[in-house]
Amino acid sequence: MRFSVTSQMSTDGVTEQSFTLGEITGILFTPQDATGPRPLILMGHGGGQHKRAPGIVAGAHRFAGEGGFAVAAIDAPSHGDRPKSEQFIQLASDMRARMAADEDATEPATAIHTLLAGQTVADWQAVLTAVQEFDQVGAGPVGYWGMSMGCRFGVPLLAAEPRIRAAVLGLLGARGLTDTAAQVTVPVRFLLQWDDKMVPRDQALALFDALASTDKTLHANPGGHGEIPAYETDDTLRFFTRHLG
Amino acid sequence: MRFSVTSQMSTDGVTEQSFTLGEITGILFTPQDATGPRPLILMGHGGGQHKRAPGIVAGAHRFAGEGGFAVAAIDAPSHGDRPKSEQFIQLASDMRARMAADEDATEPATAIHTLLAGQTVADWQAVLTAVQEFDQVGAGPVGYWGMSMGCRFGVPLLAAEPRIRAAVLGLLGARGLTDTAAQVTVPVRFLLQWDDKMVPRDQALALFDALASTDKTLHANPGGHGEIPAYETDDTLRFFTRHLG
Question: What residue stretches are annotated with the Dienelactone hydrolase domain (chains A, B) (predicted)?
Fold first, then answer.
């Protein structure tokens, strides 16, 4: 697959390089004027979001600007700048209709996750290899961060990819993932929102339980799906620094 | 009640003053050569332990030595250097016999907690008033730390005592405490051990749930009742610094 940097800009001490790798569209965030190898964090966005979602960009800027990490974010298949498949469009339409009618949207959401998981894992593995060619990244330790759909794809990625040494996951239940989670052995921080209406609490606890990692910590906070408190980002930065730094 | 300092020693930059307040036996830990007011942390030990239990002394030294806090630890009634009541002796003997026989010891443990809770809350309120008279403590912000039986007494203390502004609790279930927990509104960090054989997981989750605090975070780690990982102490120090510092 052909790798190209399509644009570059720097803001607040962080350089963002937009890239394509074959069909994959992504961004590499590094500290401005960085040279030489550094730990890399892969950030997977949530359902309906993309590589420039506010939570991704804010986190990437903190990890790169404060922590000195390299950070890669990519669009999941059928998300962001990537073409949408017919099957995805139908499932997403079904999901939106059910959510608008206040009905349970678990079935189409799960179908979307299943549809995209295999491709996303392969995409991340290719992106990891490609960005480690950069002088300011190199073949150092790698971490993964992903909430909700980003967690759904992170679990099989961690099971498949030995280069990733630590992960921050969360906002997802165990449904269909228990066996894969049992293959995850790296240190994990797992975030759960206590009043999450999209993820049943017992399902999220079951996913944390299913992870085989001996070093894993669950952090549960009050609030809904998108309301993770800001101090968890401070903690995530410390977690990655401890395990990758 | 008469307050007396009975001995004083300094180790590794921390001064320990043993004191009595009426029948209450305790220790005040402060940074060596400290002068002027500072935040105070009250540390409540677990069942069968005392004010010099290794976990209390280690935590107090970190809070005082690294964080600059004052720390007060006292013996619970019928614990440590305090005389044991007849009723306590009988219940403790029953509990030990059941534990030795691998039987459920919840009933005598709960009875001990109920027996001692009221006195312990009154003790802490008196000790708080007394130690704040020290020049190197003063009337600054106050926190509470207590696991297991220390959590059992901490919940009613927090409900009763407006001077305490933040607490680290855990290793306890909700049984008999739900209504009192609903009166706790200060920021809480709640520690749960995922494989705790002494506290059913759903009961511990229920106690976290019952706390009325809007700023509360549950941290769950693998391992048994006494196996809280060391990095939670780092986090506790940051939690108290954030809320009391």
Answer: 88-215
